[in-house]
């Protein structure tokens, strides 16, 4: 938070700070460990910092850590920042969708993401996927329906902070409710999965001979003469009847599913709640149907740190909902790279890579961490060192044993400023 800004570096240099810069550039030091040293703090000639060629300062200004990375950054790694804000929307009467898959975001091999909006009455038509679909509501109200493999129907209304999960192959639909429809983010448990390449019921019916339709549904072929000849994907419908009426209309002799396909993440217990923030978790331990996707809703208070950690069991796909933040990812090499994040942005951290997130704004930073795994797992750097042999830790890092003894225990997820 107290890093020297680029403007400050230039001013200091112009005022006679060149000697200091030259001294720092001669050798690696604490907070600037690499040789040759990295970062703007090493600059002795202000021209070294300018970008005289063509550039878009407005766009570049949204990612200041790309322009002026901390001096502890080193090397390079696959880009771990993307954004729905730069994804093209596919718009139809009834709503729109946009996506970021591995085709757009090479590092994202385990999860692909979709941002979708449905107007009040807008319908995402009856369809299914070869991958599981996990979703979080970010705005408004939506009705979801699904039929499980035992022929048991499920219908529910969801609102902001609620989740749904549809296992691969289960047919489902989505519809925006009043007063202003819904917006949500979908995550598929395969990075190459595309929202625009699903299995719509309309396409199958249109590409099935009329006599086969007649036999299958037990009605005259003439009954299907007005079916759509192309899929509808999203279309405008009317706001549906009350939930209980629809539930009764959908009822089956097979009964109801064993576990609900929806879950309120916003109401989940807070883990490691302190002045720095908290995490709320949904995985197969509390959201029973979600057997391939686990998630954590992370709230970081202004100035606080999402502590140094890694996830041993899966890659982490992130979606930033509120506030502004900065994440640094560490890999072997060494490599350490930093990026800024704003609402609508996506982050991705490969399994086992160390990382931390700083809240750089003056409001709460809220982000979603999604994993292709039945369980949410993480390892805390400070908790590991606090529960390692103290003499070994002190010797490894040239630390006073009293400092090691003061390391936080119990894996705090957040540390306040």
Structural overview:
The chain is α+β, with helices and mostly antiparallel strands and 417 residues long. It has 3 domains: 6-67, no CATH class; 91-262, Jelly Rolls (Sandwich); 269-415, Jelly Rolls (Sandwich), CATH 2.60.120. The chain has helices at residues 6-25, 57-60, 64-67, 201-206, 210-217, 243-250, 381-386, 390-397, 401-405; strands at residues 81-83, 90-92, 95-100, 112-118, 122-128, 133-147, 153-159, 162-166, 172-176, 182-188, 199-200, 234-236, 262-264, 270-274, 277-282, 294-300, 305-310, 316-322, 325-331, 335-341, 345-349, 354-359, 365-371, 379-380, 414-415. The strands form 3 sheets. Strands 2, 3, 4, 5, 6, 7, 8, 9, 10, 11, 12 and 13 form a 12-stranded antiparallel β-sheet that branches. Strands 1-21-18-23-16-15-14 form a 7-stranded antiparallel β-sheet, with no helix packed on it. Strands 17, 19, 20, 22, 24 and 25 form a 6-stranded antiparallel β-sheet that branches.
């Amino acid at each position: 938070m107290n890093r020297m800004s680029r403007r400050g570096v230039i001013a200091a240099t112009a005022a006679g700070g060149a000697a200091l810069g030259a001294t720092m550039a001669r050798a690696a030091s604490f907070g600037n460990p690499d040789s040759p040293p990295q970062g703007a703090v090493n600059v002795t000639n202000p021209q070294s910092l300018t970008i005289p060629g063509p550039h878009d300062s407005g766009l570049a200004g949204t990612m200041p850590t790309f322009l002026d990375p901390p001096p502890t950054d080193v090397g390079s790694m696959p880009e771990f920042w993307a954004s729905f804000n730069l994804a093209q929307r596919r718009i139809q009467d009834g709503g729109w969708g946009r996506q970021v898959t591995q085709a757009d975001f090479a590092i994202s091999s385990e999860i692909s993401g979709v941002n979708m909006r449905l107007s009040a009455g807008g319908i995402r038509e009856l369809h299914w996927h070869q991958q599981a679909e996990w979703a979080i509501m970010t705005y408004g109200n939506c009705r979801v329906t699904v039929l499980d493999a035992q022929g048991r129907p499920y219908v529910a209304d969801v609102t902001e902070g609620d989740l749904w999960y549809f296992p691969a192959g289960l047919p489902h639909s989505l519809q925006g409710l009043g007063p202003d429809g819904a917006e949500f983010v979908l995550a598929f448990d395969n990075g190459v999965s595309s929202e625009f390449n699903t299995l719509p019921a309309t396409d199958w019916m249109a590409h099935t001979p009329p006599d086969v339709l007649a036999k299958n549904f037990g009605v005259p072929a003439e009954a299907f003469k007005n079916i759509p000849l192309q899929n509808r994907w999203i279309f405008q419908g009317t706001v549906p009847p009350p939930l209980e009426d629809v539930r009764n209309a959908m009822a089956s002799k097979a009964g109801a599913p064993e576990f609900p396909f929806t879950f309120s993440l916003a109401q989940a217990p807070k883990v490691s709640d302190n002045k720095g923030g908290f995490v709320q978790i949904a995985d197969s331990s509390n959201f029973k149907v979600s057997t391939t996707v686990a998630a954590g809703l992370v709230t970081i208070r202004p100035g606080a740190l999402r502590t140094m950690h890694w996830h041993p069991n899966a890659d982490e796909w992130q979606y930033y909902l509120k506030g502004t933040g900065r994440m640094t990812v560490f890999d072997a090499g060494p490599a350490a790279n930093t990026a800024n994040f704003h609402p609508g942005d996506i982050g991705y951290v490969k399994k086992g890579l160390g990382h931390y997130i700083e809240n750089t704004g003056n409001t709460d930073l809220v982000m979603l961490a999604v994993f292709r795994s039945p369980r949410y797992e993480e390892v805390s750097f400070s908790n590991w060192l606090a529960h390692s042999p103290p003499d070994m830790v002190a010797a490894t890092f040239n630390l006073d044993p009293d400092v090691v003894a003061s390391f936080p225990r119990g894996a705090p997820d957040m540390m306040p400023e």
